Amino acid sequence: MKLGVVVSLVEGIEPAIKKVKDLGLSTCQVVSWNTELFTGDNARALRESADRWGVEITHLWVGWPGPRVWNFIEGPLTLGLVPPEYRYVRLEALKRGSDFAKLIGVENIVTHVGFIPENPNDPLYPGLISLLKEIVRYCDYNGQYFCFETGQETPTTLLRTIEDIGMKNLGVNLDPANLLMYGKANPVDALDIIGRFVRGVHAKDGEYPTGGRSLGMEKPLGEGRVNYPEFIARLKMCGYDGALTIEREISGENQIRDILRAKEFLSRLI
Description:
alpha/beta; globular
């Protein structure tokens, strides 16, 4: 397995890619919530920067416009492709991201789909599946996998969604901390259900929620509830040999410190 880090286009293309190299890492996932950055000029600059610094871009994480509230009350109404009023503008954002990824030679598109209904008889579910089929077909046309970022749904719900879409270019970007922070699953056990679909991993840590309205807390890697020795061993049993992409959702010097500590911690396990 290789180690990488999540970087944002908002940081600037050259600073973002150079950051990967400066941290002593070899891969990254590039994230952008601003689809206006998905231009031909930026694609060329990003590809040239990655080649210059010897960095492999494994995934493009595509955000979407509109409100987003990361909790259990307003989250189901605002996040991803589940709320009907935001579906089509967000579908277009994902298509634009897919086109940008094709220009930079990246075959994995990642996003949060939202709070996928656990009840398949929920009236929101059929329309969601129809929309997902459209973006998955679009990614297939561009030679890409569409990857669900875990968190807002149980592994069983995610598996059913993958089965109901019924296409081969589907994958999972497994964030073990998200599974805990949303109270959806133990990430080690989740691999028994969705392990064969894993095409990317966020190396992040966190805690279970302590209340019914707010997510659990993110923690520095190794200080939360993810059992990383067992988690990585189970990933290997599933045949996963891709990147472990460190994600620490803070900024500044503390973020750099925690990323470097995570790198040291993970290096002992892979």
